[in-house]
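Bit of a strange request maybe. I'm writing a small parser for structure token strings and I need a real example to test against, not something I typed by hand. Could someone generate the tokens for this chain?
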Amino acid sequence: MNEPRRQFGGSVADAGGVAIDQGLRQYMLGVYNYMALAVAGTGLVSMYLASNEALMYQIAATPLKWLAFGGIVVIGMFVAPRVIFSGSKIAAHAVFWLYAALWGLLIAPMLFYFQQSGAAADIYRAFFISASIFGATSLYGYTTKRDLTSWASILSITGIVLLVALIVQTLFFGASIASLFISSAVVVFISAVTMYETQMIKSMYREGSATNDRAAIFGAFALYGSFVTLFVHVLNILGFMRD
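Reply from user aminoacidic:
Good idea to test on real output. This should exercise your parser:
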């Protein structure tokens, strides 16, 4: 009598595990779908702006680029987590897509420069390199059994240091060898962040929970920011290598 009971219990456990795995896969697919749409939207915005020479010079003559940068930092660090989890779903989507649009505005002058200097191919090369790095690191974060939560404090401190270094370098040194070193450090940093974020997003999934959709938006928001940052600095490195 005991043996059939153990077999029956095992089949129920297996079925439950399959259900959880299917739910988790759908949840992660939603995260990557949201992210891919945001990347595509940013690409459309930035390429449209970069194709308008007069508009690019107008943006260069105003503090609009810095306002976009400030908006990205404020939304990414303070606004998005609160709105996505506490506000309405409409507000959550609005913040997410505004974030993507601001990135498009910020990237456009960089794409314009590469197009005007005859290095448009570097844009596509940077995208595929970034996609490869992102795919490999995100896959590691999803599949690894190692607990990456201990990385949180180190990544936070490193991120602040790199952000300050990037601002100082841009304001006072412009295009210099320091920019190459900072971009290389950012690529390594974002690779680690992507691993950590992917594991964190995976751990946020709760079977049958109504919060999974909001968690998927937040996860897409986090991974999208990492991917676009990675793309910008890979492109910057390619630019230095070409020069």
